[in-house]
Amino acid sequence: MSRSTPDDLARRVREALGRNPGAMTMQLARDLGVPEVEVVRALPDGRAVELDAGHWEEIIRAFEALGQVHVIVSNGAATVEAVGQFGGFSTWGEFFNVQTPTLDMHVRWPQLGSAFAVEKRSHLNDEVTTLSVQFFDRAGAAAFKVFLNFGGKPTAERREQFAGLRERFALA
Q1: DSSP state letters, 56-86
Q2: What is the rounded distance in angstroms from the CA atom of residue 43 to the CA atom of residue 25?
Q3: CA 27 to CA 64: how far, in whole Å?
């Protein structure tokens, strides 16, 4: 990974988004040679608000009230996308479980390092701004992302829900 100052990285991220406003943060991180969390942290214009990752369980439990969401889990070799609802929570050892008829996730919570509320242009449609909560592991790689909207424009209700999450869990 390359070494750059936060100001230098912020400039490089702004320039890259100027060329391609819908660029995926995962690809930007690869292109810039930094962990994805650093790209999200450098998003301009307050598009990413860091959340208090120490409240990871409360944040995840708050997703249940959102109803159906779009969840993305990605690693170096594969990406899995699921549309479903959070709920059915339990803990077993290092796993925080989400088990509903539409989502079956097992989050290794000790590995979570940071979380952000992210508002960003969609890579699928220039007319759409996505609203998501994104968790990153301790190394700065994406752990999972929960999108309140994905393919279409967010409703007023979704914007209000997102703002509520962002305000409630923002890092002090």
Answers
A1: HHHHHHHGGGG-EEEEEEE-SS-EEEEEEE-
A2: 9
A3: 29
The model's pLDDT over 7-17, given as tens digits with 9 standing for 90+, comes to 898 899 889 98
How many alpha carbons fall within 13 Å on the CB side of residue 153?
A: 4
Which pLDDT tens digits describe the chain residue by residue (172 residues)?
Answer: 556 687 898 899 889 988 988 889 999 999 999 999 999 999 998 899 999 999 999 999 999 999 999 999 998 899 999 999 999 999 999 999 999 999 999 999 999 999 999 999 867 666 778 999 999 999 999 999 999 998 788 999 999 999 999 999 999 8
Alpha carbon 163 to its chain's center: 14
Give counts: helices (H), strands (E), the chain: 5, 9
Give the 3-state secondary structure of residue 133: strand
3-state secondary structure of 134: strand
> What domains are there in the chain, each with its CATH number?
46-169 (3.40.1570.10)
